[in-house]
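Dear H.,

Thanks for agreeing to be a second pair of eyes. The structure we're designing against is below in C-alpha cell form, covering all 193 positions.
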C-alpha cells in the first residue's frame, strides 16, 4: 500500500487542481458579466441616441409642415387680394386657388413620405443595433464551475498506481542489476562518482 505521504500529496494536489479550475471558471464568468454590462450600457446609449434622433426629425417635420402651411395661406391670401384688385371672376379663381391647395397637399405628401421613410430607417437601425448587441452578449464565453469528482478520481487513480508501482528500496544513485541492453548499472554509477 502507498505511503501516507503519497496519499496526502495526491489528495492535496487534487484539491489544489480543483481550486484552480474553480477560480478560473469564476474569473471567466466575472469577466463575461462585466463585458455584458458594458455592452448593455452601450446598447442603451445607442438606442437612446436613435430615439432622440427620431424626436428631432419629428420636430423638424412639424416645423416644415407649419412653414409650408403658412406659405400656402399667405399665397392664397395674396392671390385673393390680387384677384380682387384686378376684378377677375369665374372659374380661373377656383383653378388658381385649387392649384395652390394642390401644391400644399403635394408638399405635405412629400414631407410625410420622407418622414415615414426616415422613421422606418431609424426603426430598422435600432433593431439591427439591438440584434448586434444581443449577439455580442450571447457570444461571451461562459465557464461551468467544475465538479470535484473528476479530481478525486484522478487522485484515487494516482494512489492506486503508486500501490502497484512501489518505489525502489535502494538509495538514490544506487541500483541493482543490469539494463535490458546488458549494461551493469552499478559499475556505471560507480564510475560517475
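And this is the sequence the design step returned. I haven't edited it by hand at all.
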Amino acid at each position: 500500500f502507498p505511503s501516507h505521504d503519497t496519499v496526502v500529496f495526491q489528495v492535496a494536489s487534487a484539491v489544489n487542481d480543483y481550486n484552480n479550475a474553480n477560480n478560473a471558471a469564476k474569473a471567466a464568468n466575472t469577466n463575461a458579466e462585466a463585458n455584458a454590462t458594458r455592452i448593455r450600457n452601450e446598447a442603451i446609449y445607442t438606442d437612446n441616441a436613435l430615439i432622440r434622433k427620431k424626436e428631432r426629425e419629428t420636430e423638424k417635420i412639424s416645423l416644415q409642415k407649419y412653414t409650408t402651411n403658412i406659405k400656402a395661406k399667405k399665397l392664397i391670401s395674396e392671390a385673393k387680394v390680387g384677384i380682387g384688385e384686378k376684378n377677375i371672376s369665374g372659374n380661373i379663381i377656383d383653378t388658381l386657388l385649387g392649384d395652390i391647395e394642390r401644391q400644399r397637399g403635394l408638399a405635405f405628401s412629400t414631407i410625410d413620405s420622407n418622414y415615414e421613410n426616415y422613421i422606418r430607417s431609424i426603426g430598422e437601425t435600432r433593431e439591427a443595433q439591438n440584434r448586434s448587441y444581443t449577439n455580442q452578449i450571447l457570444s461571451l464565453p461562459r465557464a461551468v464551475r467544475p465538479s470535484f469528482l473528476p479530481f478525486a478520481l484522478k487522485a484515487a487513480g494516482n494512489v492506486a498506481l503508486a500501490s502497484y508501482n512501489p518505489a525502489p528500496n535502494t538509495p538514490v544513485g544506487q541500483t541493482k542489476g543490469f539494463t535490458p541492453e546488458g549494461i551493469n548499472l552499478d559499475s556505471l554509477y560507480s564510475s560517475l562518482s
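Two observations from my side: The first helix runs from residue 4 to 86. The helical segments are 4-86, 91-138, 149-164, 185-192.

Warmly,
E.
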